[in-house]
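Regression check, S-adenosyl-L-homocysteine case 216:
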Amino acid sequence: MRFHLISLFPGAFDSYLKESIIARAIKAGIVKVDLYNLRDFGMGKHKKVDGRPYGGGPGMVLAPEPMLNAAEAALKKIKGKKTKVLLMSPGGKQFDTAMAEKLSKYSDIVMISGRYEGIDARVKKILKAEEVSVGPYVLTGGELPALAIMDAVSRKLPGVLGNELSVEERRVSSSEVYTRPEVFEYKKKKYRVPKILLSGHHAKMDAWKVEKDGKA
Ligand code: SAH
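Current build output:
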């Protein structure tokens, strides 16, 4: 699966992509990431990428032309493969596990990150892009949302999570996870690992996790 990340600050992706499971997936060739610096597609001598908003208000709006040129550069490379274009937006559809599952079936995903006041709305229309939000709050840029989506989709791909068995067995993802010791003592109080997790009965454990906080 190849992610095409378009951003005015592609350096924001670097450190995350270099660590742990995602780094390993990239090294193994299961996940590929192409970065597109919006500035490279800027207009004129100064490579301008933004403009003042119509109707007034603070902040700048990312102009359609550089964004579309960057998207075209990505789409030209993809040509005819099963592709999805996502636009990071706090007003978009809330990203969730079901969406991650669906997206993991694509061969290419183009993700557009905005900055400042956002992206000229015609970009969405022209690219028939889907607006996606990672939560009901406003961040300063789309890079963290793009990374969050890329991460959640990547861990759905076969071979990305270290232990092959775990893909099958960890159908239920839960925050109810424990490691040694079985009884942990902290400030004179004892904290035990739930008995069910010591039972070795996977179906029962899954049911218990679902009941707790499980996500399919
Ligand atoms: N004025 C815009 C917000 C711009 S925030 C609005 O009200 O929609 C700047 C950029 O950060 C956005 O273009 C988007 O790409 C990104 N962003 C901020 N919060 C986000 C969220 N919760 N989910 C996805 N993208 C977000």
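Comparison notes: The pocket of S-adenosyl-L-homocysteine is lined by residues 88-91, 113-115, 117-119, 133-135, 137-139, 141-142, 145 (CB under 6 Å). The longest strand covers residues 83-94. No diff flagged against the previous build.
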